[in-house]
Amino acid sequence: MEKSLEKEKSIDSKRASEKGPLLDLLIHDLTGPLSVVSTSAASLSQRESRYGPLTDQQKRLIERILRNVRKAQTLLNEMIEISRCEEGLFQKEFFPIEAILKESLLDVLEIHDPQMGEKLSGAKNLEESRTLLENHGIFITITGKYCQSPFCHDHKKIQQILRNLFSNAMKYRRSRVEVCISGEIDLCVSFEDDGVGIPVEEQEAIFERFVRLKDKRHVGIPGLGLGLTGVKALLEAMKGDITLVSREGTGARFMVRIPPLPSP
Hints:
The chain has helices at 2-46, 48-51, 56-86, 97-112, 114-121, 126-134, 155-172, 227-237; strands at residues 93-95, 138-142, 151-153, 177-182, 187-193, 241-246, 252-258. The model is unreliable at 1-19 (pLDDT under 50). The protein is α+β, with helices and mostly antiparallel strands. The termini are far apart. The protein folds into two domains: 2-86; 93-258, Histidine kinase-like ATPase, C-terminal domain (Heat Shock Protein 90, 2-Layer Sandwich), CATH 3.30.565.10.
């Protein structure tokens, strides 16, 4: 029995040691081609004087290419951030939560609703943004210390957490998403949708890699089953946590708590 356990530990240790080089290789091999595709597609759409005018259909196809390249680049960047987080690498800085939240919303809306994303990017202040969002069923409440004071942490990792939770809520909502930010010391954020909910027996499994909800009502919803896994991994490395409140037929509410890093 002891030999069997030692063998399993040895296998796990070997896998862990192989993970870093494999991830580095994957990132290296994907970064270059994605950059080339993005640059080439952008040049076609922006330099008609050199390549000739485009039809409306061609413009739409190029925009589709660019959106999907951005999705792939976002996934790649998330892999990098999770890897850095597991190694304890954080970029400490102070930043306003409101600004990071808006960036996260823009990242998601550019994929789910490009026209809405364009309108939001042009909003001058929070009140203008809030009006636009509420017209699309997205409601934001910010209270507590970080309504006015900056938060100290790695803004890329915070943005990744917010982006994934918002994307998840947008995928499964019927018509409404509520985002609440609060906290006096730890940053507390919740995303609540009015979707079909998550059965109790599936609530632990959704944080595992490549797990998708089995409900037939979710068939056709895009995703790889990696977003919540990445969020949980980041939060564990950041000494935070995530909780879920849901039951079938009543929507879902994901709540995260993130302790601040010591001031740089």
